[in-house]
Amino acid sequence: MDSTALTAAALDRLRNIRLYAETYGCTYNFGDTEKVIEIARSQGCTITDTAEDADAVLINTCIVVARTEEHMYERMRLFAGKILVVTGCLPGISADRVLAVHPDAYIIDPDLIHTCYREVGTVCAGDHAVLQIAKGCNGHCTYCITRFARGKLTSFPLEDIVDQAREFVKAGVTEIQVTAQDVSSWGMDRTDGLRLPDLLRALTEIPGKFRIRIGMANPDTLLPILDDFLDAVADPKIFLFLHVPVQSGSDAVLKAMGRRYTAAQYEEICLRARERYPDIRISTDYIAGFSGETAEDGEASVAQILATRPGKVNITRFSVRPGTPAAKMKNLPEPVKKERSRALTNAANAVYDANNETWIGKTVDAMVTEVVRAGSVTARDRTYQNIVILSEIPVGTQVRVTITGHRRHYLVGIVALE
Known about the structure:
Helix content is 38%, strand content 22%. The chain is α/β, with parallel strands linked by helices. The relative contact order is 0.08.
């Protein structure tokens, strides 16, 4: 049976039953889950908060590292007595094992969720919403298995993206998270010359009280449009937040990874972004202990963190994925990977503490984006700083916040007295 038929059968099973959903991995996966939930609701389903209360369980899977993939199978086994629906990256590379673990599982091809969702005409009701602008990637990273599951880049039409964003705003969404496997590659496959800055300008023209968080942008696709991109993010509706995954501070390792830029080009992006917006918050990713990485290569990554001062660093120990070119390379011992990961973490923590200290005593404009727990909320300033306020304030409220302290991974503040 082809993927269209499989997806149709799986989605048809989500009719007039109680559904519980679990999502793993990237923001894009969360966007797919939101779409499946809206499809299910349109077919009479009730969404539950726990698996125990549900007739069916949806698992949106991630395979970025081996440990995560094995956890996916553990979750499937746990729901042996339930109707199981599986989507995400796992079915695309290991559908046979999915069915071996849970023979009655229904599989949804993630490529077809977007098409089926367009027929529903509703959007999620919440404070945050995921706006998918493309699927797939034109990268050639030697370690990546996700590109086999997601395929080549396909940019969604600008008009469709803007229409969906407009519906989000009408539904009361205050934070729109623009996402793709590589956001800055949007438009590279188009023939009309439109690129990400054009899309951002179209989104900011939508009337309403909302802000846009831009997702992961790879250095090699961001650099050619950087000036235009930095012009576009001047609009106050866009968070001054930039997620640019560098993966290594060593050119030798970047070449072995199949990354098509140099460490200096990543550092150039950081420099030019801060020249335009001194407070812009930059997030990045590192892979610790990639095959062939030397001690000097690892030290280069540590030095780069200390020099570029990112506001957030995602660190992953290298995990060999079957079928990738990196699987043929000599793998480093796990203790070495752990040691390199610890060194990167220590450097990142030192940068967080130093960065956060500079904010104490400042008063900033922020928007309340979510309720943490009773009596406290999270607010985000223009640079997407995570600010916890011990007050009950409605989501979407614009507030002036004085920063009083930090807890390394977030700032603490109070509402400023006028």
